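Justification of resources, computational component.

The compute hours requested in this renewal are based largely on the per-chain cost of generating structure records like the one below. Each record pairs the submitted sequence with a full structure-token output. That output is archived, and it is also reused by downstream analysis tasks.
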Amino acid sequence: MTQRAGTESDGPEPGGGTAAPAIDAGAELDPVHPMRPPAPLFKPGGLSTAEVAERVARGEVNDVPVRSSRSTADIVRANVFTRFNAIIGVLWAIMLVVAPIQDSLFGFVIVANTGIGIIQELRAKKTLDSLAVIGEVKPSVRRDGRTAEISTSEIVLGDVIELGPGDKVVVDGSVGEADGLEIDESLLTGEADPVLKKPGDPVMSGSFVVAGGGAFTATKVGREAYAAQLAEEASRFTLVHSELRSGISTILKYVTWMMIPTSIGLIISQLLVKDNNLKDSIARTVGGIVPMIPEGLVLLTSVAFAIGVIRLGRKQCLVQELPAIEGLARVDVVCLDKTGTLTEGGMDVTELRPLGGADPAYVKKVLGALGESDPRPNASLQAIIDAYPDMAEWRCTESLPFSSARKYSGASFSEGDGENNTWLLGAPDVLLPAGDPALDEINDLNEQGLRVLLLARSARELDDAAVATGVRPTALVVLEQRLRPDAADTLRYFEDQDVKAKVISGDNAISVGAVAGKLGLPGAENTVDARGLPTDQADMARVVDDNSVFGRVSPQQKRDMVGALQSKGHTVAMTGDGVNDVLALKDADIGVSMGSGSEATKAVAQIVLLNNSFSTLPSVVAEGRRVIGNITRVATLFLTKTVYSVLLAILVVCSQVEYPFLPRHLTLLSTLTIGIPAFFLALAPNKERAKPHFVKRVMRYAIPGGAIAAVATFVSYLIARHHYTGQGALEAESSAATLTLFLTSMWVLAIIARPYTWWRVALVGAMGGAFLIVLVVPWLQDFFQLKLVGVVVPWIAVAVAVGAAVLIEFTFRWVDRKFPA
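The structure output for this chain reads:
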């Protein structure tokens, strides 16, 4: 698990010296392109500018598309070429030929809605793409003997790419240099344990470094790389499950099945059975088919998602997978990694306590040398480097990088006076046996929220598996973590919103509990040491569900704890920024990474907080709730219309009467009772946590509401048919039926708009006022062919609508009690 100095990782300095023995990075010819030259050998100094240009000209570039968003063509295609747009397009073309322009208004509405959907998604794409560039991982690549950060899309075949802790392997390759290089390939192979890599070993894109460092030669780039092939396969499916989208798809499938026989019956009824004017019959037939289609629901869902992305983008939050917004709305447990989430990344050394009479000056030399031995120090070691710069100039003969799994790092030094010593630096409760007197002193410090590292001398070699056994404590290094100023308010928000916060950290349990206590997290006083957690999932789920703060959690345990919470029916969000969080981030329902986090965490997370601000999380959760809660609310309006349209058509077919409405009537009704109100309601604030069973929640209102509206409208229509005779009777009958349907639909809207605020009342009032204007302004009466004749039938229509509204109110309340969602 270690790398000795002066072995095969040694090579000449770039640009000079004798070439080290080259490592073959796959010299066989490419079977797909036999004329392509063999993969290049490892060059410590990297490719030259001329070699890079040559490979670019050959197309050997890592041209994998960014995952951030769909292409413009895909967005246009998805919004234009839909099943329902095709149906409406055909009906629109027919109406343009056989009827006045008023009866073709529904087509212009669809064009406008589709245009709005495209524009909003393109705005969201622009936001996503710009944020993706900001948050893009830039690997360190050697070229012309120098190291520089470049975009992943600029990597070419044969590039030498450097690796350090937390770095993601972006292309396939072969290791050329290795210094304790441990790579986690669990995301690709399922193998949980990190793999120690030596020069000549292959590395696969999609894996990540958990300890050590090194460099490798790119042997496969672009779509030939392993991770790119997996991503291309995975991109055929929705990576985050969307109950909303799948629910809408289910509803649309059933709507289509209902539409086909109903439409056929309506066509036969209006064209063959009734001996009316052909063009008028066609117009009324189309008027019966068009409102069956809940086309606006699909478009409104796309718009709501897109606006959610734009709003979050303004807060420097990159949503890498759109349905993640929906997942956020359902989150009821958020797991927080302490370091980098509740605390800021940096630390400060506040005290050095020598043990056993150790010389403080000598201890500082050891700490300085340990800092110098690690080319990629973590936050704790960086604080030590800042406090104790290396003045000893000892020669490091062997090093052991820090690993989250073992909780310590180490190095062996030749101290120049003939003495060689091996030193370990890490968690005291891991390096010391239980009951050691030093642990009492350490616990006192941990209870103050301080982080303590133990410097210990080992009598064993670093590559000995038992190197940490029987060590001699030499000093305690006390570190103070910087609490995020916004962390307490954020935790309080989650508590207010009934979202349980769980702090899961690899640090000492007492220290983690003290930090959580300072931030006011409920349950912080009952901190659990994860080393005592049960391995059985059911038992672990019980412990994790009952407690809030956990310390000494291994990376695998983080993953197990997420799974245990999910087994209890929780929707889990996981935040983190280090490689030890990757497995848990991937398994969580929603993974949230900090922008300053490791490449690996940003790669697997669905959401990246580019501003590294923990306080952004409430906005993210609130946005998810707003989008999904409002879509669920307005979906009832759309599907109520579908239900009453289908039932009205069936009643008309069975009764062998003219269909009561022209397309212009239903365009007016849809616009005032659904289209305009739904747009405003979909963008309104909504803090209610999204609940499961979308289809059930929507249809339990839509079916009774639509059925009552259909029956009431048909009753008014039949009464009007009995009352009116002679020329203009059909227009008067249609007007009476339209009045009943409008008033009934308005009551459904009034229920959906609850709880009332001033603007919701104003919205409902404005829609009612707009309809009244149509009824009283002569040219609008003529345009929409709506004119109430006499007094008796219009008031009967109002009375029927009032009765229907009362029945809808009681039915909805009964549904709430009988079928709670």
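DSSP finds 27 helices and 22 strands in the chain. The longest strand covers residues 172-184.
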